[in-house]
Amino acid sequence: MTQNDQCSIGFFLYTELIADFWQPMADQNGHIDLGPPRDTAAGLDFPGPPPPIYTCTLTPELVAKARDELQEKPEWRLRDVQALRDMILKDHPNLRTRLDDAFLLRFLRARKFDYDRALQLLLNYHASRRAWPEVFQDLKPSTVKHVLELGFLTVLPRPDPQGRYILCLRPGKWKPNDYPFVDNIRAIYLTLEKLIQPEETQVNGIVILVDYAGVGLSQASNPGPLLAKKVVGILQDGFPIRIKAVNIINEPRIFKGIFAIIKPFLKEKMAERYVLHGSDLASLHRVIPQSVLPQEYGGVSGRLDMYAWSRTLLEAEEEFVVEFCQPDPLEGVIMPDALLFEGEQGGAHGEDSFRHLRSQLYYCY
User: Fold this and answer.
1) Which of 86, 338, 340, 348 could join 124 via S-S bond, C-beta 3.0 to 4.6 A?
2) Where is 26: in which H helix or E strand?
3) Distances from the Cα of 320 to the Cα of 18, 49, 59, 92, 298, angstroms
4) In whole angstroms, what is the distance from residue 227 CA to residue 214 CA?
5) How would you class 53 by CB atoms within 10 Å of its CB: exposed for 0-12, middle for 13-18, buried for 19 or more?
6) Which segment of 136-145, 223-232, 349-358 scores lowest on mean pLDDT?
7) Beta carbons within 8 Å of 42's beta carbon, 6+ residues apart
8) CA–CA separation, 344 vs 226, rounded Å?
9) Which of 49-58, 121-130, 280-289 is predicted with the least confidence, judged by mean pLDDT?
10) Separation between Cα atoms, residue 115 and residue 108, nearest integer Å
11) CA dist 153 to 183, 192, 306, 317, 342, Å?
């Protein structure tokens, strides 16, 4: 049996396993039980997972947007997916990755249908798991339930007028004695994995809202430069999602020190998408309308509900078990020398910079 045959069989088994999770059960009269209706007024009405066989769900408006912004041509879409699939099977036959259309489309859209860049992104996506086992080992929602219950992150129930879901982070809710900071990263990654499932998000991207209220020296100095480098590396070059804006509110005086850790690792285009609003909610409302914001941020969308997103993730436990609680996808794979997570050049310099930053933070206090 050839390696290509093995990959094809593995792909078939994967789709069969996924289909089992999403196959509705019929009763003895042939009626299908779809479960209790979702109470959209009480929480987040987030789209369910895509079916195992790809069918385009984009509206005509989003098809046009994808054509204009992502160079996605509907008539060539599946041809492009097949081209990327062929590259994977030819150049990385041992890579245990999903090969279904819906999955590969995420990477093509994130890199505007540039085959080479999409393949590199896919390799980085898998390389991050090997480089950071404390984040990706046994990664499933139940292991970060404490993070979700604390309110460190949530997703606002309604997207903005551009169709972008808003990931809300509140670092001040976390204290170093609560649990390791890496658990926050696990929760963020699981959230991104869930957010990227709908095709609408793949085209529209997401917006991040970070509320620094309550952040003190202990939280600010905890993620060092190497940790920041890994997080930024995943978001920029290791995950197929388009981050369209990062809005910062209630940032303390020490935020300049926090941003000094992050900025060296940001690409110029991404750095330009960071907007600091301070305590000026009117400034925030100019980029995120009050209609989608909770009352805590001057909006009219009710109180901030941290539990709706928690339920959405926890209900997807089986999806993540299939996706992440499996053998190392890179086992036996020879990776290129220039992968995102290869080595930590300049590590000593980073630590020196961090020591200098800590002294600045103490001075601020």
Assistant:
1) 340
2) strand 25-26
3) 11, 11, 28, 24, 35
4) 21
5) exposed
6) 349-358
7) 308
8) 8
9) 49-58
10) 7
11) 12, 11, 7, 18, 29
**C-alpha pair distances (Å), 278 with each of 60, 239, 266:** 38, 29, 21
Angle at 126 between CA 198 and CA 350, to 5 degrees: 110
pLDDT in tens, 69-80: 999 999 999 999
Q: Is 341 helix (H, G, I), strand (E, B) or coil?
A: coil
DSSP states of 111-179: TTT-HHHHHHHHHHHHHHHHH-HHHHTT--GGGGHHHHHHTSEEE-SS--TTS-EEEEE-GGG--TTTS
Quote the tokens at residue 69: 């912004």
What does pTM read for this prediction? 0.79
| Interval 245-296: pLDDT, tens | 999 999 887 777 777 778 888 899 998 999 999 999 999 999 999 999 999 9
> Distance from first CA to last CA of the chain, Å, rounded?
65
Nearby residues of 213 by Cβ (< 8 Å), 6 or more positions away = 170, 172, 249, 250
Supply 164's token pair.
């972008």
Statement: residue 309 has pLDDT above 80: yes
Mean pLDDT, residues 325-348 taken together: 47
In angstroms, rounded to a whole number, what is the distance separating the alpha carbons of residues 100 and 118?
15
